[in-house]
Amino acid sequence: MTVEAVKPENESYVFQGTINKKAPMVLGGKGIRMTVEKDGKVSEVIDAVTGAAVGALGWGDEEILPIIEEAARNHTYTFPSLIGNKPSEDLAKFYIDHSPEGVFSAALWCCSGSESNENAMKIIRQYQIERGCPEKTKIISRATSYHGFTLGALSISNCFRADMFKDILIDQEKCLKMPPCYPYRFQKKDETEAQYVQRLLDDLEKIIIDNDPKTVSCVVVETLPGSSLGTAPPPKGYLPGLRALCNKYDLIFMLDEVMCGTGRSNPNGKLNCWENFLEPKDAPDIQTVGKTLGSGYVTIAGVLVGPKIRDAYIKGSNSVFGSHTYASHGFNCAVALGVQKKIMRDGLTSNIFKMGNLMGQKLEDALLKEDNIVGDVRGIGGFWSLEFVKDKVTKELFPVELDVGHRYQQVCYDNGLNVMGMQGNADGINGDIALFAPSFVITEADVDEIVSRAVKSVNELTAQLKAEGQW
Ligand SMILES: Cc1ncc(COP(=O)(O)O)c(C=O)c1O
Questions:
Q1: For residue 153, how far is its CA from the centre of ligand 1 (angstroms)?
Q2: What GO molecular function terms would the record report (predicted)?
Q3: Partners of residue 241 on adjacent β-strands
Q4: Are 157 and 123 contacting, i.e. CB atoms less than 8 angstroms apart?
Q5: Given pLDDT bands bounded at 50, 70 and 90, which one contains residue 40?
Q6: SS3 letters across 273-301
Q7: Whose CA, among 4, 93, 324, 442, lies 20 to 30 Å from 460?
């Protein structure tokens, strides 16, 4: 047996990110602020992205301890297919009751957004078998999309994260891709919004027809894409158009709301992002959620199943094939339910919708018309992004090696602001954005502080790039 030598202080034992060096370490947090140690220096930063759009409640919430304590006191683990638990039932009922009536009728709880999408893909597959349509195997998702890092979820994604694994993904003839919905970059100059939407819908219909509609199973999109092309709200008519095509060709309509859902961008003080764009009659047949559900205090995500799917199962085998050890985990569900009840009681989803839109407006006012690298400010409710371009008129991208999105993240950090820089929005590889997804508790003063630091950082990075002859 070999015993590994103790690593030097800054070496990491954790196999993630940069392997041989410790990542910046969080030391604590309170509300929208957190304390982070980086390269030996401790600083307080405003968390404007709450990890990866996770922290709905804000950090160190005073009421979370009693919620966790009660959940732990009442928790006895059971394997969910054999013996169920009350919190998973209660959380499912809560989500169903706080969604438009009749849209969802059951939920499955799991531990990550990727896992929820894996499960949704399998639930849809079993649905097609249960109702006697086993030939329906093909899934249509979008180019430049992200649905998670497991192999199934990567197979329906289309971005730089999937590229390295392409040889071991699900056969891409079964995972078809339609064009992204991304007006800033792809709506033509001489095209109206309605014409652009129609072009996208025509493209989808052609894919369905060319691939034999009888073999197509479902269409899946992120309601408001986040870590793919950056919070581009779907234009009017786009999501209803997808729903109509799903109805026409007998396909399941699935929405991925892992990042944008569960209160982050709901206009009615409730949960679902699609309520901005769809009438309840056009709601998805199945939907995945995660992130803000447990607000970072527990690892929980889920699949919401509509009556069409649930009823087909009941008429068929009346059982769900397969399960995970930690599905419907009672402790996780109890904490998530406590978090969600508090969010509803305090009107926090209404607050983030209002304050988030204010933040977006202020970013737009301060950045769009000025001479800097910001080409677009887009989003809705508590989920926004900046898109960086070399030229505001031509929308020319920065060279990928400059890594402008991540550089912006670093400049923001140095200015006491945590945001998420990303690359690949334009085509899966090129393009630079920064994401903003603050906690639901932000006040107007917090909005001003976030905007002021974000604008300062844009100006500093613009000046740096100018000095380097890159802008
Ligand atoms: C739309 C979407 N779906 C799924 C996932 C995967 O979630 P997780 O990282 O919890 O597995 C993400 C993660 O960012 C996401 O943005």
A1: 9
A2: pyridoxal phosphate binding; transaminase activity
A3: none
A4: no
A5: confident
A6: HHHHCCCHHHCCCEEEECHHHCECCECCE
A7: 442
Query: What average pLDDT does this structure show over 135-158?
Result: 97
- pLDDT tens digits along 413-450: 999 999 999 999 999 899 999 999 999 999 999 999 99
Q: What gap in Å lies between CA 309 and CA 252, rounded to an integer?
A: 9
Q: Which of 356, 372, 370 is nearest to 466 (CA)?
A: 372
The encoded tokens of residue 80 equal: 């969910």
The encoded tokens of residue 411 equal: 């400049």
Pseudo-torsion of CA 364, 366, 369, 375, nearest 10°?
-50
Cα–ligand 1 centroid distance for 421 (angstroms): 16
DSSP 312-346: HHHHTT-S-----TTTT-HHHHHHHHHHHHHHHHT
Instruction: Give domain limits for the chain.
Output: 25-60+348-467, 68-345
Evaluate the CA torsion angle 269, 272, 274, 280 in order and state its sign.
negative
- Site to substitute for ligand 1 among 159, 258, 435, most atoms within 8 A of C-beta: 258
Beta carbons of 34 and 45 less than 8 angstroms apart: yes
Which fold does the domain 25-60+348-467 belong to in CATH? Aspartate Aminotransferase, domain 1 (3.90.1150)
Chain-wide mean pLDDT for the chain? Answer: 96
CATH node for 68-345:
3.40.640.10
